[in-house]
Write a structure and sequence with these properties.
CATH class of chain B: Mainly Alpha
Structural class of chain C: mainly alpha
Order of helices and strands of chain B: HHHHHHHHHEEEHHHHEHHHHHH
Distance between the termini of chain C: 27 Å
Helix content of chain C: over 70%
Shape of chain C: globular
Oligomer: heterotrimer
Largest interface: A-B, 54 and 51 residues
CATH topology of chain C: ABC transporter involved in vitamin B12 uptake, BtuC
Radius of gyration of chain B: 21 Å
CATH architecture of chain C: Orthogonal Bundle
Structural class of chain B: mainly alpha
Helix content of chain B: over 70%
Order of helices and strands of chain C: HHHHHEEHHHHHHH
Number of strands of chain C: 2
Number of helices of chain C: 12
Chains: A alpha/beta (432), B mainly alpha (375), C mainly alpha (337)
Number of strands of chain B: 4
CATH topology of chain B: ABC transporter involved in vitamin B12 uptake, BtuC
Number of domains of chain B: 1
Largest sheet of chain B: 2 strands, antiparallel
CATH architecture of chain B: Orthogonal Bundle
Number of helices of chain B: 19
Chain lengths: 432, 375, 337
Amino acid sequence: MKKRAFALLTMITLLALLVGGCGTPVPPPEPTTPPPPEATTPPEATTPPEPVIGTAYKLGFFSSITGPTSSLGVPERNTAEMIAAQIEEAGGVTGPDGVIHPVDFIIYDDESNPEVAATVASRLIEEDEVDAIVGGSGSGPSLAVVPLMQEAEIPYVSMASSRAIILNPETGESYKWAFKTPQENFHSGGWQAAYVEAMGWDQVCVIYSNDGYGQDCLAQTTAAMEEKGIEVSYSDSFEPTDTEFPQIASVVASGCDALVIGAVPPGAALVTVAAREGAPDLPVVLGHGVCNATMISAAGAAAEGTVFPCGKLMYADGLPDDDPQKALLLKYREDYMAFTGEGPEGLSTFGGHGWDGVMWVLEAMGSLEDGLDLTARRAAIRDYIETQITNWPGTGGVFNVTPEDHLGLTYEALGFVKVENGTWVYFPPEEW
Amino acid sequence: MQREGWRRHQISIGIGVFAIVIFLLGWLEMAQPMGFEFSDVTGGIVSFDTLVRVGLLTIVVVGLNMLMGHAGQISLGQAGFYAIGAYVSAIMTTRAANRGINVLFPGVIREEWWWWPWLMILAGMVITGGIAYLIGRPVLRLKGHYLAMGTLGVGLIIFVLFREGGTFTGASDGVGSVPRLCIGSFEMWPRERYYFLVWAVALAVMWLSLNIVNSRVGRGLRAIEGSELAAQTMGVDIEKFKLQVFVLSTVYASIAGSLYAHYQTLVNPTPFGFVGSLDLVIMAALGGLASIWGAPFGVGIVYVIKEVLRARLQTLLRGAGGEHEIVIFGLLLVLIMIFMPQGLSYAAGKAFGWLRNLSRREGKTEIDRLTEKAT
Amino acid sequence: MQSILRTKSARIGATVAAMVLLVAIVLYLGDAKGFGAVQYVQLVLDGIRGGSIYALIALGFVVVFNVTGIINFAQGGFVMSGAMLAVAFNNLALPLPPALKLALAVVFGVVGTTIVGALMERLTIFPARHSHTLTLIIITVGVYIFMQGMALLIWGANAYSLPAFSSLALEDQILRSGGIMLKAQSLWIWATLAVVLVALYFFFERTLLGKALRACAINRRAAELMGINPSRMSLLSFAMAAALGAIGGVVLSPATRPIYDMGLKLGLKGFIAAIMGGMVSSPGAVVGGILLGVLENVAAGVTRAGFKDIFAFVILILILLFRPQGIIGGGERGVEQ
């Protein structure tokens, strides 16, 4: 008897939750035309004493807050929330006509699963009706949503590295509505090959993680190495949840001169530790995905002496003062640490990719005339990103987005670093 | 034993009513009378996309319910067969073009033809059924927990093979650019049209299963489920029945997989691993294992819970994210299984008497009897 | 095929032949990769280490199954919980010498998880104790999901670390000999397994409580008639399983990087090891675990690591088909639903 009562109670509660969504007045994501009262007067009030507040813009954001790529998604989400707080304080973005538009950030978790990514993307496009979407920590979820973005004609900026996100592999043309901010794996591969060549090695082994990123790393590294005539004598994958690494035995047996690891931490750290234990004298080269403090803390002493290409965010202090990125990198680091309350170990290039993407969209929103409808806004934001992001210093590099290249970064966006005494030291080619 | 009057057609009536509800929801989205669209029904919580996904998994879970609830066989690897259907459709409608299918049937069959993907759905069913038949013979000889492990192993092996498939299966990135289904020049898109297609298949599958379960075959299954030894004594050919149901359930999964491929347009190994199979079992159990009607319920409730959490969690707990969703989902799962172990369809049946008669029509199974003892 | 294997000698012959074939294949593949004896020994050693952890986890499965008939999918969660709690304690800033702090962290991890296991039993298993086995299995799945979610919530998605027991630092002491390397932590793992096995032996054979537990496993009704309280035994079994899982997690932690989702894979492998022991036999589970670890590691080493999971499951299926009572054998018990 009690059980049935509880059963009914649970059902009623669930139904109530559902229905409650209809009845209860819920604070925006769905604001109506009279703007929400929390928009405050921005400090830099323009000539009219009462600034006009326009309709709120909506920015959709999703990343892998849970799941295997959550170490990428969480800093990205934190960055988005940080920017959202900054925009809220400023009241919104100011249009060219002086009208201030508050920006609503709608943030979802794609659970590192392409299926969920497609679900939340559909939700953002149709239910939440956002003006632009920034999202996708991993290549899988990002690739899954590109067709949706193309069909819905909404601008999309991905934070994942696969080239196929922005470039149709069959036709070689850019997808009209998709952009991305992280540096390419083939730039990373290029750096690795250059280093290996400079050190005079001719055989490398590659160990990569069993996901989209790792496999792309394998492909790019192999291509870059082969271009320089370096042989990849052995390659194998690993699961980030592995506790044993039999691959190291094969690495040793193959007699290669160096080990290239294509993964992100903590997986990459585990492999590095295993490599140091099983093959202590083998040099280890990694990719630009390990350039964050998790790598150092997870690998410890094993990380000493490892080299890899790295976005400038992580060694911003060491940059020359005339570097166009230095100022904004330092500011981002400061703001991020203040917002999350963490120390420098929370910083990562992933958060930076999120920052770049969101700032593109915000800048585009700031260029919009007042009174445009949803379709027009989406198209205008897309056009802005494709044409106006030129010589644009971001955390990932200096971007030059063109219709042919929806990323806009080159080889120089990355620098090469070496790990010494538990931190990154800038390691330019002159010192190799 | 024939039932009298309208009860003879109880299954068809039930399906018919359900079909009308589905149709209305779809029509709401399509016609959008007075600007009112589907999402307004739930205040923007459940999206139309979710309804389509519920339909897809209903097809799989109906098969699972038949297998687990009526034949008493556990399958922890059903996602593997879902995957086979999805990959066959995906690969054969994209990469096959590059592999020169034209060469095989020059000038006769060309993959640009609109009926090629449909043919591939059929091909997927045949391939999946064939694999299930080959695997089923030895594996179904196991019982209980051993069977669970065996099917788990099968599912995982299939998953790993797809993930390690190199350029053939696209490995971790999967196969993309899967085309949409069309009949002639009528494209099964936008979403509303696909919704009708998916649910038409789901309803057909449910109707078929309900009829099977209420026929001689169904009684044979229930006999097996009650006690294999007793059934054998009565002359029921256990091996044949178990295998048939197993193969049928995997064929359902394959159809669903193919439809999924054409919906998502990208087939990636992630949803087909152990967690995927577990999700399916959870959906089957939540809906009520012994009930075919439980399938849409179980799938629906899981999706609805996830959507509700996704949409409303931000307002209930500031700064809540996906982490909270997982915790709450686990909690809800435990609570529901403790207090409503027969699943939601049974609970709903208690609340709405006539629905209960429908599920009861399928016959009381061992599970019903065991769980009833608890209340 | 089954009919041929009916005679015992034929079965033994077939088994031996299969093993020889297996070794031959391994050697052939390894040779193609240029393996020397060093690599094989290394792979086996590492496999024994991993396998020991599987053995500890498997023991947890066996204890619970024996007493309650439930497959506890939350076992992996206990492993993770033990590891994370130990890490959390160790990361506190306490004015203690590192060795003592580490020891206390280990104790904290195991005791804390035991409490979690007991709570789990009382709150989720006990209320549903009359339910169908499948229902209970799904409940344990729900508990696992909950535990993983809580870990993610509390500790985030970061990977943590526990100092190695020998060196009290992140880097372990490594013993090297002729190209083969052995981590000091491996010795700790093997020692722990040995101690646990001895302790369990004494518990089950020499203590009244242990014998009561065994009685419950053999025949619940009869035990009840003898005055043993089955629900208390159920509680005890879950607490023990939690402790065993936690011990495994804690002693493994220095060799890997504890993270919120480490439990799933380990739990699954431990489960396979338990099945290899016929699900009812403790020594079978231990042998199964170590065997699984070695086979899996060697196979992955001579072919591709991506296929490691496949090997584990192929082994599993072969065992299920040809020797379902497990390697050492405990009889077919309680398998039909």
